[in-house]
Design a protein that fits this description.
The structure holds two protein chains of two kinds. Chain A is an all-alpha fold. Chain A contains 13 helices and two strands. Classes of the chains: A mainly alpha, B alpha/beta. Chains A and B meet through helix 1, helix 8, helix 9 and helix 13 of A and helix 2, strand 8 and helix 5 of B.
Chain lengths: 341, 506
Amino acid sequence: MSAASGVVARFGLAGGGAALRVRFIGVIVFQLLLMAVFTLARPRFASWDNLQSVLFTAAILAMAAAGQTLVVLTGNLDLSVGSIMGATAYVVFDLTGTMPALGPWVVLIAVLIGLVLGAVNGFLVTTLQIPSIVATLGTLSVYRGFVSFYANAKEVTVGELPPWTRSLAAARVLGLSSYVWIAVVLVIAVGVMLRGVPWGRELYAYGSNPRAAYYYGLSSTRIVVTGYIGAGIIAAVVGLLLGAQVGNINSLLASGIEMQVLAAVVIGGVSIWGGSGSVYGAALGAVVLATINNGLVLLGVQEYYRLLFQGLAIVAAVAVDALVQRRVLRATRRRSVGVAA
Amino acid sequence: MGGPDVTGDPRPPRLRISRVSKHFEAVRALHDVSFDLAPGEVHALVGENGAGKSTLVGVITGLLEPDGGEVVLNGRPVHFRNPLQARAAGVAAVYQDPNLFPHLSVAENIATGRYPTSGPFLDRTTMVAQARARLEDLGFPLDPEQLVAGLTVAETQFVEIARAVDEDLQLLILDEPTSALTPGEASKLYDVVERLRAEGTTVIWISHRMEEIRELADSITVLRDGEHVRTAPAAELGDAEMIRLMVGRSVVLEQVARTEPLGPPRLEVENLTDPGVFEDVTFSVAEGEIVGVAGLVGAGRSEIAQAVFGLSPHLSGEVRIDGEPVVPRGPAAMVERGVAYLPEDRDAEGVIASMTIASNIALPSIRSLSRAGFMLRRKERELAARERTALSIKGEIDDLVSSLSGGNRQKVALARWLATEPRVLLLDEPTHGIDVGTKAQVHDMMRELARVRRMAILMVSSDLPEVLAVSDRVLVIARGRLVADLPIAEATSERILTHATAGAAR
């Protein structure tokens, strides 16, 4: 009997584990298809200059998506990511304008801001038990409202930015923007944390089955709050990088980016129900999104077509995820013995 | 405080439950419960549903904080704040429903919370090796790197046990561990328990199954209504006495001779096939008849009932209701034809816990209870009140179903189908996890539904005494095939098991 159930178990694995792997490979195939189509339609798409620009857009998005992954893995959302980016960039660069002596310490200030704003999100979701979509929809407005109040309709201009941040934004390493390399390092770092550090496995475990996590004695509060703090810190640093690149910063920097970030995460195969997917998938999702945006601009299609296409990609990705999720859960429910004949 | 042992026994009990009480708002779940567990004994914990067994397990493992009293482990009072702390002290529990992470591997599930690390990093090699060793040790080798999604129920149970069993294990609590296991898997589990006993680990075994308790237990503790009734060596407590203590009255599952005649066939199934699940199944259920469906877990019994209810997309064969052919294309169509199905997992599929008893009962009848698109609240309440009384459901009709015990939830699930006055009733493990007293009530209800309300009832059950007590006829399913159709006069536990296992061994 155990031999029979062993066989079924292996088939069951094919239902669960393989579905997850196929999902990841699917995104790669989709990306290759996109590139092929765009290259055929507009050969200029495949030019080195253009690919660099795709990668630069993807880099910002991928870093933000890496942070978002820490939250989505626990089965939650962080809609306030754009507001954290904007708030950090404005406040930090406003400070450097008045206190140039800060130098690279500004990064520490950004980290602190991200930590606090992320912790607030986590507090609302865990201690106050507010559904994350509502809690972070609230903080999206609150954080943005705070910067607008702080900015008082003024701008931080390029001249006020510390010169080193400007040169970092403009720097190239091995032909690619420094931001691309920063993104690669950050994504790998987050990937290593998720896979190789107990905390990372706990994020997955909690997202996979919160009830089991409770029985295992894992603290849901600690897991979810640290996820939000991680996401907040990353968003803050990305905000800084984006600000340095943009130059003139007003209180609306990065507003609306949360939809792009979430789209990247979801297209990349991080399950919106939590517990599965990887940060590499999320980064890949960012590349897909950047490719779509760039390619459609090259094709000269209108903005609303771009939105339409991006929306379809999101819905399709989640539809596939729903299928994968059903596979995983059905495989769990399958009983032993089976009817092999 | 850990004062000197007052009994003078040089060896302190492995676990002492001392005057433990626990209330949930007004409900008294445990009241002044005290008893001892010796090192290396298998201790059966029995009682009806709601007797306080799960609450007691929660208190021991740190899931729940007691209102009063204390838990003393090896002579030292302990106050675990969560199961992880309990595990660190050598106390582990395996619950009835697997609590695992489907998206993670077997090894990760076993290691979660106590990861082997090197520096800040997870030591995967050690983690996988440890998991492999544990599973082999249990005689249940599984690939530690496969995902838990895809494991059978039995396999997930062994993953949980592998997680619990460690060198420092002092006390293992098994909460109805065999309810989802085949006899072969259960005997593997017995071996594990025997070995733990030999190694000096104390095991608390919670079960509703007498034969298990007889096979394994050294001593037995009976809880009733949150109070400790008796702790005695297993040899000194007979079955009848144990049941009497559990229910406070004597209840035996008995056949009730029928006087009412059977009617014409209501449900006829011919050559029903769902490829790879079951094949060529033919049977019929007459008006006023209860047909039991027995067989091993996973033989395809539930799937047959589900198929008749229209839950199986790849069905071939014929289904007739009162002689009329129907295509089981979905639950909505089958409900319209007068078929009702009560799933095994009542919390997930049977009731809507966040709604009131009245709303649950009225749910399938909403259309007939409304006029011009509006619900007639008064009629809804009348219907609910009627069925509540008929089925003696505890609680008021405005109470939330989530506040009810398992047995009463099952009654609500049943009531809501009865309100539609079905002709064919499909029941899947109708008394799974229900205590002995409520079980007998459910059986009486089923007899009345068949004999008085003239329904045709098909009952899938793994509980052989139940099948024998309630059925007029017994179908035995093995590996997706109908291998026997026994009139109740010819059906015995031995004969059913012989058919079920012979078919399975092929």
